[in-house]
Amino acid sequence: MSYKEVYAGWQADPEAFWMKAAEAIDWIKAPSKALWDDDAPLYEWFKDAQVNTCYNAVDRHVEAGNGDRVAIIYDSPVTGQKSKTTYAELQEQVAALAGGLAAKGVVAGDRVVIYMPMVPEALVAMLACVRIGAIHSVVFGGFAANELAVRIDDATPKAIIAGSCGIEPGRIVEYKPLLDGAIDLATHKPEFSVIFQRPQCEAELGPQDIEWHELQKGVPPAPCVAVSGDHPAYILYTSGTTGAPKGVVRPTAGHLVALNWTMKNIYNVVPGDVFWAASDVGWVVGHSYICYAPLIHGNTTVVFEGKPVGTPDATTFWRVIAEHDVRSFFTAPTAFRAIKRQDSKGESIKNFDMSRLRALYLAGERADPDTIEWAQEVMGVPVYDHWWQTETGFTIAGNPAGIEAMPVKIGSPTVAMPGYDVQILDEGGHQVPVGELGAIAVKLPLPPGTLPTLWNASDRFIKSYLTTFPGYYETGDAGMIDEGGYLYIMARTDDVINVAGHRLSTGGMEEVLASHPDVAECAVIGVSDELKGQLPLGFLCLNDGCTRTAEQVVAEVITLVREKIGPVAAFKLACVVDRLPKTRSGKILRATMVSIADGKAYKAPATIDDPAVLDEVRLALQKLGYAQP
Ligand code: COA
Ligand code: AMP
Asked: What is the per-residue pLDDT across 145-186, written as a single tens digit (0 to 9) for each?
């Protein structure tokens, strides 16, 4: 069947489409129907089913006789370690950890925060939680204690599972002090923490801490428990427009059905193939495509602890692909920009056998044409951009290579996947003509596996996503659809920026800057960056009578953002100005500031209060190397 036929088949009968896809899942009690719309605009999928995620990701493969198949390849250039875990070994490890958690009283519905580096045990921890119906919430290692504390207070976990350290090139990141700091800051206190000790830096354990292996001693392995189809498998926090992150809820059954469907139809792999997503378990790409989808589908997944460059050099990706026989590879464009910067002609790839790789998949940020063309030429495989979000958990628009490889149009992540009726709307919620820009919205209901709501915040869910365009999910992205139905993603419509494929909130950074005692007012914008796509840049107006120099305050706010949000914010640019450009009604002209910074043509809005302020902004930006004529 062609893509058009598959998509039309879904449009004609979504219920039949998803019930058919659901046949690939092993149910304890099969769903009687797919969509539950009694609470519209809040929708659920496969709600009356009974199922277990871990059983589908691990146990069923062992029972089918594939226990010797490799489930996880661990490749860690930062430690020099490599290992392989079979499905049978994974089952044993997961059941043992789940048994330990259960023995400490963790039951279905309890939350467990996971704060782990890129080691196989991070996947073991996630799977152990879903095995017993506990709801995990993984927090990315590059976040500071304060961000961890915010998530602890929102998810109110019974337990935390943490590694003793992460390893960044040139430095060891001790997790235990960050964890202790977060628990101190948080109002909610978890009952205990499980610590996975790494030889690079063992943590000192306190009275609430239990060592990973100790937890498992003398307790029986835990079986998979049945949960209902709408039971949350996990919560993953993502940036919104304010400093309070949104807890995206992932429902169990829809997650299983949708992710399993994507592995063949989008990533074009068959069970047994090696699939590699070079991301981090702290992000949605890591949840969906390092942990769950490859395992549910019976593939081998690669857990890579390293960077595209510097661990040890720009050949690392090629080595991992060749050495582990990777068939489909997924990463963010920024990783390729980093490699290209060090090996612009891609000479070093010639030393590696890439002949088995079928395709490269890019997502997480806009894939710029230069990067796509370079990757196509150097790697000699199709490069498929695809667009999705933490909220959806899988592709909204992509190239369905396993159904039919569509011609690549550079600059477009290709076409809407079955399940998604993507439309471009104007401010009034009307569809714009083909080729015109507008807000990208998806007609409700969203497909299985996408967020049914935000954790403990259904009102916020409705307000943030379902209110601007009644009957639609507002993606927060703007773009257009061409005559061939190809989608183009142009920009965010909110204060979210994308730094090296990491989604960050400028509003959240502004809250940190505003907390500095000398800062009267501030604004953070995302400026274009050749490597990371965007970088945050802060403008500060200081209080009258401030006795500190501008340099002092700038240095302090940079440190403050690193302490409060974390190194991942990459906040290193700030300047002091007398005033911020505003409209007469007091709205800060952030978009105009971005245009000035990026050296783009702009027109000051008619409502601007004082156009002279823009010149001041330009001068300040020029001092930082931006706003070049
Ligand atoms: N734990 C602790 N610190 C972390 C971290 C983690 N898991 N991940 C990143 N950091 C730190 C980095 O060490 C860096 O700190 P520094 O300011 O002291 O140098 C800072 O956070 C910013 O990290 P990053 O944005 O990753 O920049 P980088 O300069 O270290 O690397 C790239 C740049 C392009 C190589 C890197 O961003 C990359 O590999 N990106 C791949 C894309 C990706 O994984 N995207 C995820 C979504 S698909
Ligand atoms: P995240 O939730 O971290 O995955 O970030 C999702 C956001 O990243 C989207 O809303 C887009 O703004 C951006 N994004 C992700 N993939 C793409 C893509 N292929 N092209 C353009 N932007 C993308």
From this structure: 999 999 999 999 999 999 999 999 999 999 999 999 999 999
Distance from the alpha carbon of residue 123 to the mean position of ligand 1, in angstroms: 20
For residue 366, report the distance from its CA to the centre of ligand 2, in Å.
7
* pLDDT of residue 285 exceeding 90: yes
Tell me, using a 6 A CB cutoff, whether residue 479 lines ligand 1: no
DSSP single-letter state for residue 611: T
Helix (H, G, I), strand (E, B) or coil at 182: helix
User: Is 366 touching ligand 2 by the criterion CB < 6 Å?
Assistant: yes
Q: Which two tokens stand for residue 245?
A: 């992150």
Residue 507: pLDDT band with limits 50, 70, 90: very high
Give distance in angstroms: CA of 503 to centre of ligand 1.
Answer: 12
- CB atoms near residue 6 (< 10 Å): 17
Backbone angles phi, psi at 155, to 5 degrees: -85, -15
pLDDT tens for each residue of 58-102: 999 999 999 999 999 999 999 999 999 999 999 999 999 999 999
The answer to whether 414 and 408 are in contact (CB under 8 A) is: yes
Q: Which atom of ligand 2 is nearest to the CA of 385?
A: 19
Average pLDDT, the chain: 97
Q: Which domains does the chain have, with CATH numbers?
A: 87-225 (3.40.50.980), 504-623 (3.30.300.30)
Ligand 1 within 6 A of 122 CB?
A: no
What local confidence, expressed as pLDDT, does residue 316 receive? Answer: 98
How close is the Cα of 568 to the center of ligand 1, in Å?
6
